[in-house]
Design a protein that fits this description.
There is one protein chain. The chain is an alpha/beta fold. It has two domains: 1-130, Rossmann fold (3-Layer(aba) Sandwich); 133-201, Orthogonal Bundle (Arc Repressor Mutant, subunit A). The protein is built from nine helices and seven strands, in the order βαβαβαβαβαββαααα. Helix 2 (41-50) runs parallel beside helix 3 (66-75).
Length: 206
């Protein structure tokens, strides 16, 4: 870490690619984070019992075992934001990751600088009062705070990419949140969703 710079906290990293791990560690350390890399989910879970990281960067392998790690972290009350990375990530995988507690879902390949920025944004949001609030739709499952924010942007007519830029998320993550909101509301598309929420008079764009 650069001399005399106060640490912003520890970031736990699981990534099977050694070069990617090295790049992430260097970039995060230059940005004043302490980095601990793990070879597998079991070792990360063991360490998480002893100390709370500021953030977790979790690679999702093809067998999707990362979802189990994510769920275990939440079950064991490790509430730090978790960013999931994956090669060949699908909307379905993004939805599953977000439903299991991920703060962001980022497809590989990615730019290391983007990851560092996303980690900073996730940590900052987690520190905000009310970050664990939930919102309700009439007759539906409650929306998470992130889903509520995405819904507000959808209602304002923003596209997935515009929402992603505003919320410092990947477009795939926004797609995942959007799909989750539609599922909870039982809506076919965004126009149908907004009509249900705001009444028949809405002229929202899908």
């Amino acid at each position: 870490m650069p001399g005399n710079m106060l640490s912003k906290g520890e970031v736990f990293v699981i990534d099977t690619d050694a070069a990617s791990r090295e790049q992430l560690s260097t970039a995060l350390q230059q940005s004043a984070y302490n980095v601990i890399c793990f070879a597998d989910g079991a070792s990360l879970l063991s360490e998480a019992k002893a100390r709370m990281p500021a953030c977790v960067l979790l690679e999702m392998p093809p067998d999707r075992s990362g979802l189990d790690v994510l769920k275990r972290l939440r079950e064991e009350n490790c509430m730090a934001p978790v960013l999931v990375t994956a090669a060949n990530g699908s909307i379905a995988m993004a939805v599953d990751a977000i439903r299991s507690g991920a703060a962001d879902f980022i497809e590989k390949p990615f730019r290391t600088r983007d990851i560092v920025d996303r980690i900073g944004a996730a940590i900052d949001e987690f520190a905000q009062p009310g970050s664990n609030r939930q919102r309700w739709l009439p007759g539906c499952e409650p929306l998470s705070a992130r889903e509520g924010d995405v819904l507000e942007h959808l209602a304002a007519g923003l596209t997935n990419k515009e929402i992603a830029r505003r919320m410092h998320l990947s477009a795939r993550t926004v797609e995942g949140y959007r799909a989750g909101i539609l599922r909870k509301a039982g809506a076919k598309n965004v126009t149908d969703l907004l009509r249900r929420i705001f009444g028949q008079g809405s002229s929202a764009q899908d």
